[in-house]
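Entry:
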Amino acid sequence: MNGDTLSIGELARRTGLTVKTVRLYSDRGIVTPAERTPAGYRRYTPEAVARLAFVRTLRELGLGLATIRRILDRELPLDEVAARHAAALDAQISALHLRRAVLTAVAARTPTTPEELRRMHHLARLTAIERRRLVDEFLDSVLDEVPAHFAIRRSMTPEPPDDPTQAQAEAWLELAELSLDPDFRDAVRRLAEYHVRHASCPPLPDAVALAHRHAGPALAAGIAPDSRDADPAVAALTADTGPDLLQRLESADDPRRDRYFELLAVINDWPPPEPHTPVIRWTVAALRARAA
């Protein structure tokens, strides 16, 4: 002690900080010495103890030194900084919630190959930005040729909640794996390109919509596609669309697409979608039976 001032060592002991940290804060102007001894040693007033205690609290909250100095110098209001920081922490907590849920989903599965294990490990560790980039890259690759695709893109975009359920985390994991499958990407891209050429667009081509309208009731009633009872449904369907109906329905027949939208509904908490595959296959069977 030298009168009412403290040495840097005493200040460090009183605040629980290291001498190196106190010196750093002093060099940054966060706490300034009241005087220096003839030998050049710094001396601080007792008020520096309270100032450094406040600084330590702000550091534990994750604030940077530049921001802390502006708060201490009254250039930034503390309540505004605290609100912004709380919002940032909320975003981090949300990301951690999803990562924890995905890791739990990975732990519950049994990878069959080293490649599957590596892929699941990679997906479980993705940040929120990386998850968004993965989805964007998938949708870019399959919808690039679709005109006015923004509404379609939105209907195909997963938006996991801040605190997902285990079912939502497992659905995200499966959907991410599906979107990385080159064969699935090619199938969706081909479907999109085909329907662009025929003035239609995914995810519900006009041929599929018509199949639901005309063949759906027959399928629900248990009518066999090759029976005479199916004739009215087939006649109404063929009268309502072009001659390439069979080809268009065959191009749309991919159960993985149904699975994608089922998973999407779970992730986004949407009502379960109506699957297309059963009605497509019923209609294809009915058309083939009559062609034969």
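The radius of gyration is 32 Å.
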